[in-house]
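User: Please predict the structure of the protein below. I'd like the answer in C-alpha cell form so I can feed it into my own downstream comparison script.

Assistant: Understood. Taking the following sequence of 124 residues as input:
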Amino acid sequence: MMITNRTLSLLIPFVLVMLLLSSIIAETCEGSSTSTYSTTIVLPPDPRPPRRKGTSSVKITNSLGPNIDLTLHCKSKDDDLGDHVLPYNASFGFDFNRNIWGTTLFFCGFPWGASSTGSMSTLR
C-alpha cells in the first residue's frame, strides 16, 4: 500500500492530536493520585419483582397487638384468595392485574368477635 501526500497530510495532524491527548491524559492521571475523591452510593435491592403496567399490589399487616390474630378473607368477582389468619406483625399480600377499564374491585373481610364482621373495598 502506498501512502499518498493527501493521506500523509491527513494522518500527521491526527497522530499529533492523539499524542497530545495521550500526554494530557497521562499527566492528569499522575497528578490526580493524591486528590481523588469518590462517592459510592449503594442502594439496597428492591425485594419486589418488577411490576408491569396495570399491576397492583396489596399488603395487609397485623398490627393489632401481641397475641391478637387478624383473620381476613379477600376476593374479587373472579378470584377468591381464601381465609388467612395473621399473627401479630405478620403480613399477607397479593398482586393482581387491573382490567382494561380500571374497574377491578377486591373486597377484604375482617371478622371480629363472635357476631360482627366488617368489609372494605381495597381497590377500585
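That's the full C-alpha cell string. Confidence is low (pLDDT under 50) at residues 31-43.
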